[in-house]
Amino acid sequence: MTAGWSAMLAPGRRGTVGVLCGGVLLFAIDTYVTASLLPSAIVEIGGERFYSWVVTLYLLPAVVASALTGRALAAWSARRAYLIALGAFGLGTAIDALAPSMAVLLVGRAVQGAGGGLLAGLAYALIRTALPRELWTRASAAISAMWGLGLLVGPALGGVFAEAGMWRGAFLTMVVVTGVVAVAVPAGLRRAAPRPASPRTRFPLTSVLLVGGAAAVLSVSGLAVSGAGVSARGLLVAAGGIVVALGLLVALVVVERRPGAARILPAATFTRGGPLGAVYVTAAVLIGVSAVEAFVPLFGQRLGGLTPVVAGFLGVALACGWVVGEMTSASLNRGRAAVAFGPWAAVAGFALLTVTQTSGAVVWWAVGLLLAGLGVGMAWPHLAAGAMASGAEEGDEGEGDRASAAITMVQMLAVALGASLAGVAVALGGSDVAVSAQLLYGGFGVVAVLGAVTALRARAAA
Question: Does 42 score more than 80 pLDDT?
Fold first, then answer.
């Protein structure tokens, strides 16, 4: 059973929810704000040839930091770990605000990514220790909703400051908000359960290197098919990179399955017949297919004849469906049904998008995007809560931390993989934008079917 939404805002809990949501919102806003102000920043500090690396050098540290969330909680208290994450994020943001050159901006982005990845990883880990179990699903939905809010606030914040010729002001604003969240941490996380003393474990170096390597290869793959006029060589590099990254992730599974291995994933992930492995795969599929969002404005302008502003709002349709889906789903005590049905709703949305691209029927595009987003949002909070519950059942705080932190790590890797696959699909269409759109939506619809299959096992954890 899950408690009502009012229980989330009860005295002693609203501070916890506010702090955890605030940290994720900072990370989400920063993910989107930079894209809207970067053109203005380049005019002042130069470095246009490193444009794409601004995202790459943000994502890689975020993936690695999220993978080490359990390690951070083993070394520090919940409040200290969260303040360290906020400190790293704030420092990186301040470096960005003061950057005199692109090289310095890239350093700031890397520091930001490390802090943001740790904030996102801690959010799920601390839900488990700071809130009662009956609130885990709703808390997961609230935290995930911050990504939808970030998609709305980020571009607007960056656009306003860039339009005023004050792009640094967006970063300075975020430094201030980071400080506000930090002030609330001592009170907000005072209910986080104290951790019992645990024996020191080996650092999972091999696993961290494999995760970081996969993220790095996927980032480079994305760069190979970014921009216009993608060459055959770029497509080959991108496709090869995806294969290599998947190989590294398979190697990660092999390494983590070894008895006595220093791991970043909980042991229950590899239990034969257990649902946790399927939970992570289903979550990865649903997050990965949401990468289509980046290309919606392009298709809206070139195929639908929309203005840039209207096309941008069309791109928000998937995020809106996601938020509505998760908030509605988290309110119902139907976790297993939501996990089973959600991926199929996404499949239906992508099917509708695929068959309507050549018609210019923008209304149907919006319906398809909303439906796909609803499918993702419907399943997500139950998958996240199921992962946390599976880790808690092990009776080991370290295992619980790994299970919770892995949610963010899987999310970050899925974003990188989805972006690379989307870039390849669009590039394969060449100069025919309609074909590119059909390849993207149709291909991701097929990927969503994989999520529907793995959800049959994952629903046991909901």
Answer: yes
